[in-house]
Amino acid sequence: MASPRTEPADIAPKATGRLLIRDVSLVSPAGVVERNQHIAIDGTAIAAVGEEPEGFQPDEILDGRELLAVPAFFNAHCHAAMTLTRGWAEDLPFDRWLNERIWVAESALTEDDVYWGASLAACEMIRSGTVGFADHYFYMDRVAQVVAQSGMKALLAWCWFGLGPDKEVGGISFATTEQFVESWQGDAEGRIRTCFGPHSPYMCSPQALKQVHEAAERLGAGVHLHLSESGEQVQQSLKEHGRTPVGHVAALGLFAVPALAAHCNCVTDDDLEILARNRVAVAHAPKTYMKLAMDMPPVERLLAHDVRVALATDGPASNADLNLLEVMRLTGLVQKGLQAKAEALPIAQLMRMASRNGAYALGFASSGKIAPGAAADITLFDTRGTHWRPRHDLAASVVYSSHPADVRHVLCDGRFLLRDGRITLLDEERILYEAEKRAFRMVGAPMERVRSYPS
Amino acid sequence: MASPRTEPADIAPKATGRLLIRDVSLVSPAGVVERNQHIAIDGTAIAAVGEEPEGFQPDEILDGRELLAVPAFFNAHCHAAMTLTRGWAEDLPFDRWLNERIWVAESALTEDDVYWGASLAACEMIRSGTVGFADHYFYMDRVAQVVAQSGMKALLAWCWFGLGPDKEVGGISFATTEQFVESWQGDAEGRIRTCFGPHSPYMCSPQALKQVHEAAERLGAGVHLHLSESGEQVQQSLKEHGRTPVGHVAALGLFAVPALAAHCNCVTDDDLEILARNRVAVAHAPKTYMKLAMDMPPVERLLAHDVRVALATDGPASNADLNLLEVMRLTGLVQKGLQAKAEALPIAQLMRMASRNGAYALGFASSGKIAPGAAADITLFDTRGTHWRPRHDLAASVVYSSHPADVRHVLCDGRFLLRDGRITLLDEERILYEAEKRAFRMVGAPMERVRSYPS
Predict the structure, then answer these.
(1) A346 close contact with B: CB closer than 8 A
(2) Scanning B119, B151, B184, B306, which has the fewest C-beta atoms within 10 Å of its C-beta?
(3) What mean pLDDT, rounded, does chain A reach?
(4) Rg (CA), chain B
(5) What are the residues whose beta carbons fall under 8 Å from the beta carbon of A111, sequence distance 6 or more?
(6) Which stretch of DSSP H or E encloses residue A49?
(7) What are the angstrom distances between the C-alpha of A272 and each of A154, A298, A299, A399, B133?
(8) Domains of chain B in sequence order
(9) d(C-alpha A268, C-alpha A270), whole Å
């Protein structure tokens, strides 16, 4: 399968101008709300924060008096095109959810479906203040195309089921995933990063995981996989390999390259030490865990062990949406509740997990903070809404009462992906229509369903 | 303290017209999404659902093709004016939250503050599809005024601390609460209902609770109280009274009148039987429980015992907002997670808890369903948003991915409280300004905070 790099015409143009956001409130790298600040952006990076820099001649000035600037969010584990099966498998136990619904629908999946499903996901993520996502799915060339066009950033991995050295489960060979990693690495002005996507230690043999490690080392790429999702998986791994899933994967060398592990719901202290020592990023997706009745990891314990926990939605078929605002909120609420500790996971920490830790997980080291020299990845909230009043604590409003509709502008590398509530670089109206049409076809729903709703 | 009934000029006018909502999708009383329906509304009630009734001459026709109609929501336990301390006490353990923050701010509370704080709450509730609320607070005449003006419905109780027969803790006498119950009962065309509001069995002596029961029987009114919020309270009650809080309150006769019990987080099977037999409505507020690290009740077990569980936010100082959409979502997610049962609390049941069970808790028997003869209390969602696509299951979208900004129209007794996203009967812009100004004064924040944000 070919992995065409993007044509220049297919890439959203690089930001080259100078933007000044005046008199804005912002969340500082220390997590403090600072008022009446100026943010000067030059090209793709933040040039200054605080005072207006001398001699800075902006091409555009944005009045920030009613806005709050926060570091834009990064969704650390996602199957973006699963927007197509959102709402198609409700209130079902996990095995029925998967076997009777998701796999049946996905058996009809085409690469065009992935393109439109991921385009829908891109619109939804941008609208909720997210500029980057770690995607793990099929037909990833088409997801890369969406990233190039949308102006977003992404870490992309072709999901690979390595159940034997010669098998091509799921329709693709290891060579295809390798070619994808190599071909798209650094594309779209560096906004696309690629890595290997072995599904998990229970869907990949030790041999296959070794193969992944060797290829990743050779290409200087990382890995993104599902890990330790349930107590059952841990028991099975101990029985088969004499190690926990985390220990097993580490022993096979997978953590010698940059690693992103989705979930890690069931972990021992030894596991946490391995994850911390190897600087593995862990993607935490609490809405999916609750909706599918999976185990909930003890997030504060992970953080206490210096594990880098980022936030994620997982796919919209389980999570219902792609809204990291809600994931921040749920992470805080659930951990406070489970630990019976209202001071657990304070607001600044939740915001850092959604932004800086997410950027780390995706490999965008200069993103995740509003500071001179950082990438100009900024989400601007409109603070005028009824549910924001009184404005005692704007950061608390973001985490505990804001909604995607409060996101007014989104900048990625200094370019507007959302401006005044409108998606700038994608044809959202067409995407809504095309994605919905394909989603109905996939599940065998009558087309009148589409026609009866004007798009 | 006087309890003036409302002047006619102060009451939002009764709906008298005929409205036809054409080609709308709706959630039926059975919880099923039905498409291409007509809803005919005559005055305050629903005249017909399904076909357009013969001879019905509407004054207005609403195009429903992009809308989903659901029974409007009822917030079963709330301290509305606590919008004023939203965001003022974050990430603190309960005792510090209460003693160092909330009580300090509330010590400066005036009756005007309550009026503006409750007005802000009314706007926020209407914007999230809620038409009724059970309020339990101070200066309740002023809350009643807000209900009259806003067009909403409410069950209002003056919070009373009955720690001794002659004590007037909290500044009001029992006679004041009694006068309030009597004076406002049925006001504003029946949209205002009143009841007694003894704080809780731990803040009211048995003597005081008996007094409440006698007065409630005499006036034909009910009670609304906090009950069994923690295991500690249960232990204390067993020690002092030889009964659980539920058993204790029942033995004092309080369940012989219509009763609304907030929380019931820690309950025995015997408690559940008492609650069910006496048809006590239980208000469930999971966001507050998690945010303040309180115990979480086993909702499905309550429902299995036929206890009428309604949904609630509690006050915005603990809940951060007044959004029942989120409470539905959290109720489903948390119970699925806690029980490790993805099929727990299906979507239709969550919607019923937010609407019909809430209407029952407040005493509005004809509300909570879209059916001929029912009160025309309807929330209309715009289904065009990005996060609604594909529209496989509109009810799932409401519960698991919708936001207040998706609520386009809200009808209460056939009258628009929200039309095309605008509050119709209240001066929202002034409310935002006045409420914020008072909130900043209460917490001693500098007034520049207000002035620096244009309202």
Answers:
(1) yes
(2) B306
(3) 94
(4) 21
(5) A139, A141, A142
(6) strand A45-50
(7) 26, 11, 11, 27, 46
(8) 15-72+368-423 (2.30.40.10), 73-362 (3.20.20.140)
(9) 5
Nearest CA in chain B to A94: B342
Copy the structure tokens of residue B73.
């929501």
Q: Do B127 and A383 touch (CB under 8 A)?
A: no
B98 in A contact zone (CB under 8 Å): no
Cβ separation B66–A383 shorter than 8 A:
no
Is the previous residue joined to B286 through a cis bond, with omega within 30 degrees of 0? no
Enumerate the H helices of B355-423 as residue ranges.
Answer: 356-362, 394-401
Tokens of A23: 């008199």
Cα angle B347, B350, B351; round to 5: 90
In angstroms, the CA B248 to CA A69 distance is: 52
Per-residue pLDDT of chain B (455 residues; tens, 9 = 90+): 445 566 766 777 777 899 999 999 999 999 999 999 999 999 999 999 999 889 999 999 999 999 999 999 999 999 999 999 999 999 999 999 999 999 999 999 999 999 999 999 999 999 999 999 999 999 999 999 999 999 999 999 999 998 865 555 556 889 999 999 999 999 999 999 999 999 999 999 999 999 999 999 999 999 999 999 999 999 999 999 999 999 999 999 999 999 999 999 999 999 999 999 999 999 999 999 999 999 999 999 999 999 999 999 999 999 999 999 999 999 999 999 999 999 999 999 999 999 999 999 999 999 999 999 999 999 999 999 999 999 999 999 999 999 999 999 999 999 999 999 999 999 999 999 999 999 999 998 765 554 433 33
Q: Does B178 touch chain A (CB under 8 A)?
A: no
Among the residue ranges A211-220, A270-279, B162-171, B416-425, the one predicted with the least confidence is B162-171
Helix (H, G, I), strand (E, B) or coil at B91: coil
Residue at A421: amino acid letter: G
Q: How far is CA A244 from CA A235, A269, A295, in A?
A: 8, 11, 16
Residue A416's DSSP bridge partners are A411
Using the 8-state DSSP alphabet, how is residue A191 labeled?
T
Residue of A323, A335, A392 to mutate, testing the B interface (most B Cβ within 10 Å of its Cβ) = A392
Q: Do A293 and B337 make contact, defined as CB atoms within 8 angstroms?
A: yes
Residue A66 in contact with partner chain B when CB distance is under 8 A: yes
What separation, in Å, do the N-terminal and C-terminal C-alpha atoms of chain B show?
A: 34
Using CB atoms, pick whichever of B320, B321, B333 lies closest to residue A287. B333
- Shortest distance between the Cα of B22 and any Cα of chain A, in A, equals 13
pLDDT tops 80 at residue A5: no
The answer to whether B343 faces chain A, any CB pair under 8 Å, is yes
Task: Using alpha carbons, list the distances in angstroms from residue A23 to A72, A349, A375, B454.
Answer: 19, 25, 20, 12
